[in-house]
Design brief:
Helices cover 46% and strands 16% of the residues.
Length: 343
């Protein structure tokens, strides 16, 4: 019997498996499009997949104003692409001018924060149920490696989450986390679809670019040709472990009373104090994230200090934010204490 080789799934097959059209065709979806290959492929893929329904696709583009005329040209390209597909386009821009001295990871973080704030506003404006971004498996591997180098716990090793709340009415979703850039480029070539090349992706002042262009190729060449796959497996296992941890701490969240975005009152009852040090730190970390307080400066040593304070009879400490932590008897009060009263 003659055997034929199995057909490899196409980009559209993989995208459909990740996020079937039936799950979103009746609601408004806002697609974040930078103009680069990944986001252009996501937009074209969703447009091809949508069979009808009451929902609509809309495009969002944020001009970071970091590359002068190139940034302006990116915005024009996205607007023209959206128009050619018969889609509306929301465009926003940063309120800063690039200073040659202001570059690197700090600027990258500020740009990311401004972009997501714009996406929240744009989602509210168009009534989007979902905002989708074009993070890929390659982005995931780079993120996990970056966190390993910087120092992280199990939650950090899980990498970029597939979904998270963006606003009360909108979910942020990343349907391309299982797709590789090679599959994306092949799809765009099959359509004859142009995209924009971001020159800053080669700027080695950014840690992400050094990981992508220097460290990952070195690891693949000298240590493990499948290093990206190994990182992705690590992220998947970490996500499973974190889900198990979350199940254990979920019933204990009722012991905290949120007093607003700047304070939480926590009853350190015997159930909480019976937790292992690890689970107690995870519980406190969960509370911290829920309050949207700054996490990056909270090192392992600081989480240990906070857990020790929670177990003590009395004490007061200041943590990054700044967050004032006060323990009195069975109660731990965490309060944002910066000069504006907000973290």
């Amino acid at each position: 019997m003659q055997r034929f080789p199995a057909m490899q799934p196409t980009f559209l097959d993989l995208l459909q498996q990740s996020w079937p059209a039936r799950e979103w065709q009746e609601v408004t979806v806002l697609v974040a499009v930078s103009g680069g290959a990944d986001s252009v492929a996501l937009l074209r893929g969703l447009k091809e997949m949508k069979p009808g329904g009451a929902g609509r696709l809309s495009v969002a583009h944020f001009n970071h104003r970091l590359r002068g005329e190139e940034s302006t040209a990116d915005a024009a390209f996205v607007a023209e692409l959206a128009a050619s597909l018969g889609l509306g386009c929301e465009v926003g821009s940063a309120d800063w001018e690039l200073d040659g001295a202001d570059c690197g990871d700090g600027l990258e973080a500020a740009a990311r924060d401004a972009r997501y704030q714009f996406l929240k506003t744009a989602a509210d404006r168009v009534g989007a149920r979902f905002v989708v971004t074009a993070h890929t498996a390659d982005d995931q591997a780079e993120t996990i490696l970056h966190r390993v180098i910087r120092g992280t716990g199990i939650a950090g090793l899980a990498g970029i989450p597939r979904t998270r709340p963006l606003t009360a009415a909108t979910t942020l979703l990343r349907p391309m986390l299982a797709l590789r850039r090679s599959e994306i480029i092949e799809f765009l070539q099959s359509l004859g679809q142009a995209y924009r090349e971001d020159a800053s992706n080669g700027d080695m002042r950014f840690t992400r670019n050094r990981l992508r262009h220097e460290l990952l190729p070195l690891l693949a060449r000298e240590f493990n040709p499948q290093v990206s796959d190994a990182l992705l497996r690590l992220g998947s296992l970490a996500a499973e472990a974190q889900a198990t941890i979350q199940q254990q701490i979920e019933p204990l969240l009722q012991h905290g009373e949120v007093l607003g975005p700047d304070a939480i009152h926590w009853h350190c009852c015997s159930k909480l104090l019976a937790l292992s040090d690890y689970l107690l730190r995870e519980l406190l970390s969960h509370v911290w994230r829920e309050q949207n307080w700054p996490l990056q400066a909270m090192t392992h040593e600081k989480w240990c200090d906070l857990a020790a304070l929670a177990r003590s009879d009395a004490g007061i400490r200041t943590f990054p934010g700044p967050i004032l932590a006060q323990k009195q008897g069975e109660w731990l009060l965490l309060t944002c204490a910066n000069s504006e009263g907000r973290c």
